[in-house]
Amino acid sequence: MNKIEHIGIAVADLKAAGDLYEKLLNTPVYKIEEVATEGVKTAFLQSGPNKVELLEASNPDSPIAKFIAKKGEGIHHIAFEVDDINAEMARLKNEGFILLSDEPKRGADNKLVCFVHPKSAGGVLVELCQSIAQENL
Ligand SMILES: CC[C@H](C(=O)O)C(=O)SCCNC(=O)CCNC(=O)[C@H](O)C(C)(C)COP(=O)(O)OP(=O)(O)OC[C@H]1O[C@@H](n2cnc3c(N)ncnc32)[C@H](O)[C@@H]1OP(=O)(O)O
Ligand SMILES: [Co+2]
Questions:
Q1: Please, are residues 12 and 68 in contact by the beta-carbon 8 Å criterion?
Q2: Which of 30, 34, 42, 111 is deepest in the core (most CB within 10 A)?
Q3: Does residue 21 line the site of ligand 1, with CB under 6 A?
């Protein structure tokens, strides 16, 4: 596991949250991207070395909709950068962590991603992110 790749924040209204975080971080949203397979619409802001991912549910079955219904808006997950997501997934599985998919999935912002169930990670939803090489986009 390398640096924190982003902090995921669940929001009810992506536009309003984007405006708020632009003021808070004094930096513009640099990308808006829907990941239909995840049921989310995302907005990204970069503040120094830190990346913030705002997440709005794009359908009622979205994990973000369920999260907000249960816990309200707020920090949803921590994503870590990995060099080799398949190797990290195998290592974590071997260590007894519960992975939420058998294979990496296509995430936002040109990443391959996989999630670790919060029940096996001390109550924190952890995401692994491997950048997709330019030639493979
Ligand atoms: C991929 C695009 C983008 C990117 O970065 O590229 C994203 O980050 S997409 C982010 C949205 N997608 C996901 O979150 C996928 C992984 N999440 C899941 O599969 C589910 O949300 C899961 C399994 C974590 C929870 O789903 P479930 O249907 O089991 O919901 P429950 O409310 O029953 O939760 C069970 C249990 O877990 C606790 N929980 C749920 N979400 C979180 C969370 N984000 N952080 C910490 N804990 C969480 C929930 O409170 C329940 O615990 P309990 O003690 O029973 O209340
Ligand atoms: Co994320």
A1: yes
A2: 42
A3: no
